[in-house]
Amino acid sequence: MSQVLTAEPRVSATRARIAIALFFFVSGFGFATWASRIPLIQHRLGLNEAQLGGVLLALPAGLMLTLPVTGQLLQRFSSRHVMMAGAVLYNVALALLGFATHTWQLVALLFCFGSSRNLLNLSMNAQSVGVQTLYERSIIASFHGVWSVAGFAAAGVGTLLIRGAVPISYHFLGVAVLLTALSLAFFPNALALPPSPPATKSRFSWPDKPLLKYGLITFASMACEGTLYDWTGVYFVQAVHAPKELATLGFTAYLVAMTTGRFLGDWGVSRFGTKPMLQASGILMTTGLLLAAAFPTPILAGLGFVLGGLGVSCVVPLVFGLVGKASPERAGAAIASVSTVSYFGFLIVPPLVGFVAKASDLRWSFALVALLGGLVVWLVPKLREEA
């Protein structure tokens, strides 16, 4: 705990927790704002599923390619400053996305959106680890719950604005201004953490064998999460044949379930243990995506997205918690190493959904992604016993 508040200003645990929760809210609301408009942006630019898949590749590509840069920045500057810079750049990119009128513009801006999201997310997760040291009970999952609440709120706002025929440019610009103002207001209460110790390996390190299992679990979860984030709205239009004004219904159902699961995650771990929770998560991912693929109706596909949302809800925070316990001296570096693997799930799988859908249809794409839940179920028993 002595490392947490080694620099001024000193803040109370409660104020720090609220401040970092706010940055999780900014990240979640901004990302879901973009995701809620994907079907309309696809229509505006005249993109088919394969073209959309290629365009969506730009966001995780930006995220992945800035991992070494973010690591270097966190070794030179306090995570609070990296977090604030990331929040500002993130919202600037979001605002500009609303004005993209050509595919190349959308690709370039999504790359910047992903890069700034990486700056924001890794630094705010470092802040959340610092806040956790101020509490005896587990509170880190609640930050991810706030992220989900923000996503749900953004989906609701997106639905209302779509029905009100509000232009995408006004929508994104208004959200970006509001989120930037909130970030500036709560930044003073972020923890003044010292920079991370320099890495002993290369700046872009692959996890060793024990950590690789954690990475593969989060790879599978983030692949399913990215697929549900990017494609549920399109799935409701293309496979379920729901009206375009209801395109966000499946996305909203998914977010509600993921939010609920994250706030119940700490209770579930206390009641059943971490490994059973992770295995149940894998089962729910597989069942939900297969249900949506097999029965593309509003009710059953929506139920499938609910199960999928519950499945992906706690995997990443639970695994990050286990990684912190496995490597307590260098928790930040270990989490970044695991993230190297997990981000490939976000990078590779959602765009591949579009290419598979072009070759066959979205139902086959969702069925194939469902198999990743089985990977989680298979890997969890192989984790070290102390996890």
Automatic annotation (TrEMBL):
<protein>
    <submittedName>
        <fullName>MFS transporter</fullName>
    </submittedName>
</protein>
<feature type="domain" description="Major facilitator superfamily (MFS) profile">
    <location>
        <begin position="16"/>
        <end position="385"/>
    </location>
</feature>
<feature type="transmembrane region" description="Helical">
    <location>
        <begin position="18"/>
        <end position="38"/>
    </location>
</feature>
<feature type="transmembrane region" description="Helical">
    <location>
        <begin position="138"/>
        <end position="162"/>
    </location>
</feature>
<feature type="transmembrane region" description="Helical">
    <location>
        <begin position="168"/>
        <end position="193"/>
    </location>
</feature>
<feature type="transmembrane region" description="Helical">
    <location>
        <begin position="362"/>
        <end position="380"/>
    </location>
</feature>
<keyword id="KW-1133">Transmembrane helix</keyword>
<dbReference type="GO" id="GO:0022857">
    <property type="term" value="F:transmembrane transporter activity"/>
</dbReference>
<keyword id="KW-0812">Transmembrane</keyword>
<dbReference type="InterPro" id="IPR020846">
    <property type="entry name" value="MFS_dom"/>
</dbReference>
<dbReference type="InterPro" id="IPR036259">
    <property type="entry name" value="MFS_trans_sf"/>
</dbReference>
<feature type="transmembrane region" description="Helical">
    <location>
        <begin position="82"/>
        <end position="100"/>
    </location>
</feature>
<feature type="transmembrane region" description="Helical">
    <location>
        <begin position="301"/>
        <end position="323"/>
    </location>
</feature>
<dbReference type="Pfam" id="PF07690">
    <property type="entry name" value="MFS_1"/>
</dbReference>
<feature type="transmembrane region" description="Helical">
    <location>
        <begin position="277"/>
        <end position="295"/>
    </location>
</feature>
<feature type="transmembrane region" description="Helical">
    <location>
        <begin position="50"/>
        <end position="70"/>
    </location>
</feature>
<keyword id="KW-0472">Membrane</keyword>
<feature type="transmembrane region" description="Helical">
    <location>
        <begin position="335"/>
        <end position="356"/>
    </location>
</feature>
<dbReference type="InterPro" id="IPR051788">
    <property type="entry name" value="MFS_Transporter"/>
</dbReference>
<feature type="transmembrane region" description="Helical">
    <location>
        <begin position="246"/>
        <end position="265"/>
    </location>
</feature>
<dbReference type="InterPro" id="IPR011701">
    <property type="entry name" value="MFS"/>
</dbReference>
<dbReference type="GO" id="GO:0016020">
    <property type="term" value="C:membrane"/>
</dbReference>
